């Protein structure tokens, strides 16, 4: 690893063709990493991370960075390689069967937080944080939703108040994936209460070991604790930790929403269809019902839906790459498809596996995977915006349908809160 405290690459590397990159990467993977498979990834997805797990995953991330395979499209001045989206696609293809760094539920760091920061943060902040992210030294969570601001994300009430050259945060967030394992949170706050709710928002990087920060895991129906609730009591933040402009946080939020739905400006990483569904086929064979026509029909339906959703995601990724911009309305199609078909897929798998889906030996996480997926299957219909929110986005932003009536979209937010306190629910 570089001895430069910023972690930046000393100079831009010579241009490397995609084929040269593929050849070198393939050789490095064969010599360095262990094989992996989709079933093992699924089991790890919801595991509780021990300190030893975190140390091991951070070490693997540092190893990836030292070899030049972390932050492929990140500019070299921030410690990345400065390569193209085509190089990233090659990396995703070649590494699909290898064991990569896997922080499980604390997976927002590079997929969402890093990309948002690169799009909106000041260079000094990027030089401070991005190299550490790429080396696995900083894990980040997203602090977006609140107990009274879920689907209406512009209604957040966590307050950031100016003080000298910094800010003081008070309030709280909820449903933050993996926050208990992270070092920083990317937090949406209210900085101006005298303007309409979309206009008075600002994002900050919050160090999670700062005085006044309290994190409490939320235990879910499947027994895991993927999500957390956070409380901020007089947390002091330097203005240099601001992400984007003051009171322009909704612009940043739109980037976050697109990335939450799996898409970046350069396109998205869409899983290859080759070799997919092996988990379902293996389940059918293990059940001894591979020749049962009802089970075969269930399997065919699931595979058809998987195929359609994967191609929809692929089309959206190509559209994003060709249009050169983020389009939350178009991205909502993928989120709605996942929110619609994931629960149906989970129910079909339960029907295929039968009683073995609800009864398995203690400690056998692979045998318990279908039940866990079923219990968590509604998450896609809620997280990142409910199915209803996605439909609204498609209707208004893509199809050009009129917006639903809203009394608070132009009203100063403090007046909205006063009106809500006095609202009786009676009309006329």
Q: Overview of this structure, please?
A:
The chain is α+β, with helices and mostly antiparallel strands and 428 residues long. The chain folds into three domains: 18-104, Butyryl-Coa Dehydrogenase, subunit A, domain 1 (Orthogonal Bundle); 142-254, Butyryl-CoA Dehydrogenase, subunit A, domain 2, CATH 2.40.110; 261-398, Butyryl-CoA Dehydrogenase, subunit A, domain 3, CATH 1.20.140.10. The protein is 43% helix and 13% strand. The protein has 13 helices and eight strands. Strand 6 and strand 7 form a beta hairpin. Helix 5 runs antiparallel to helix 6. The model is unreliable at 1-12 and 264-276 (pLDDT under 50).
* Total tally of structural domains: 3
Describe the global form: globular
> What's the CATH architecture name of the largest domain?
Up-down Bundle
CATH superfamily name of the largest domain? Butyryl-CoA Dehydrogenase, subunit A, domain 3
Q: Largest sheet, if any?
A: 4 strands, mixed
β-sheet strand percentage: 5-15%
Strand segment count: 8
CATH-defined topology of the largest domain? Butyryl-CoA Dehydrogenase, subunit A, domain 3
Radius of gyration: 23 Å
Q: In which order are the strands of the major sheet placed?
A: 1-4-5-8
Instruction: Give start-end ranges of low-pLDDT stretches.
Output: 1-12, 264-276
Oligomer: single chain
Topology as a string of helices (H) and strands (E): HHHHHHEEEEEEEEHHHHHHH
Question: What is the terminal separation in angstroms?
Answer: 69 Å
Main CATH class of the largest domain = Mainly Alpha
The tally of helices reads 13
The helix content, as a percent range, equals 40-55%
The class by helix and strand makeup works out as alpha+beta
């Amino acid at each position: 690893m570089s001895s430069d405290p910023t972690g930046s690459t000393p100079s831009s590397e010579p241009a490397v063709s995609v084929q040269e990159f593929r050849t070198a990467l393939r050789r490095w993977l064969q010599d360095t990493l262990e094989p992996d498979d989709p079933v093992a990834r699924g089991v790890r997805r919801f595991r509780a991370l021990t300190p030893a797990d975190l140390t091991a995953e951070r070490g693997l991330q540092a190893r990836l960075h030292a070899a030049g395979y972390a932050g492929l499209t990140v500019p070299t001045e921030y410690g990345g390689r400065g390569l193209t989206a085509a190089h990233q696609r090659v990396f995703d293809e070649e590494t699909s069967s290898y064991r990569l760094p896997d922080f499980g539920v604390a997976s927002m760091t590079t997929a969402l937080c890093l990309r948002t920061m690169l799009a909106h943060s000041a260079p000094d902040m990027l030089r401070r944080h991005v190299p550490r992210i790429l080396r696995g030294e900083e894990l980040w969570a997203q602090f977006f939703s609140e107990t009274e601001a879920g689907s209406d994300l512009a209604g957040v009430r966590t307050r950031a108040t100016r003080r000298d050259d910094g800010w003081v945060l008070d309030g709280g967030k909820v449903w933050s994936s993996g926050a208990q394992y992270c070092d920083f949170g990317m937090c949406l706050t209210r900085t101006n209460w005298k303007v309409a709710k979309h206009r008075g928002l600002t994002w900050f990087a919050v160090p999670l070991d700062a005085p006044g920060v309290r994190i409490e895991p939320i235990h879910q129906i499947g027994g895991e604790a993927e999500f957390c609730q956070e409380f901020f009591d007089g947390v002091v933040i330097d203005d240099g930790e601001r992400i984007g402009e003051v009171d322009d946080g909704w612009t940043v939020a739109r980037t976050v929403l697109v990335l939450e739905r799996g898409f970046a400006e350069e396109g998205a990483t869409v899983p290859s269809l080759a070799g997919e569904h092996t988990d379902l086929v293996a389940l059918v064979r293990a059940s001894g019902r591979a020749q049962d026509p009802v089970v075969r029909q269930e399997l065919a339906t699931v595979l058809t839906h998987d195929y359609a959703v994967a191609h929809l995601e692929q089309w959206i990724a190509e559209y994003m790459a060709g249009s050169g911009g983020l389009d939350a309305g178009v991205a909502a199609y993928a989120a709605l498809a996942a929110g619609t078909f994931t629960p149906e897929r989970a129910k079909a798998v339960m029907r295929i596996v039968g009683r073995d889906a609800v009864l398995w030996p203690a400690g056998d996480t692979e045998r318990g995977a279908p039940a866990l997926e079923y219990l968590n299957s509604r998450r896609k219909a809620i997280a990142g915006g409910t199915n209803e929110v996605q439909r609204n986005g498609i209707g208004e932003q893509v199809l050009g349908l009129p917006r639903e009536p809203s009394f608070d979209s132009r009203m100063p937010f403090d007046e909205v809160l006063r009106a809500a306190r006095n609202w009786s629910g009676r009309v006329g």
